[in-house]
């Protein structure tokens, strides 16, 4: 529940990140961040706070890796907000 709320807040800053660095660098960073978070989940023995941190990093990577390549290329400008809400 908390990680999904953080994802919504992070998605607001995604436009600034994309405008600053382009599309390739944030996608590579997000995939690396998701890989590290997924690989580190079995290493921690406590659920709180480590699972929450790893889950939040995975969600941030999904937001960046999912929205950046798909929305500008395959969705028309008029319905981009609606398509973002479906993701």
What topology emerges from the helices and strands here?
Blueprint: H1 2-21, H2 24-40, H3 50-74, H4 80-86
Helix pairs in contact: 1-3, 2-3
Tags for this model:
87 residues, mainly alpha, 4 helices
In terms of quaternary structure, what is this? single chain
The coarse silhouette is elongated
Query: N-to-C terminal Cα separation, in Å?
Result: 16 Å
Percentage of residues in strands: under 5%
Roughly how much helix do the residues carry, as a percent range?
over 70%
Unreliable residue runs: none
**Which whole number gives the mean pLDDT?**
77
User: Could you state the order of secondary-structure elements as H and E?
Assistant: HHHH
Radius of gyration: 14 Å
**How many discrete structural domains?**
1
Largest sheet descriptor: none
The assigned structural class equals mainly alpha
The count of DSSP E runs of length 2 or more, i.e. the number of strands, is: 0
Number of helices: 4
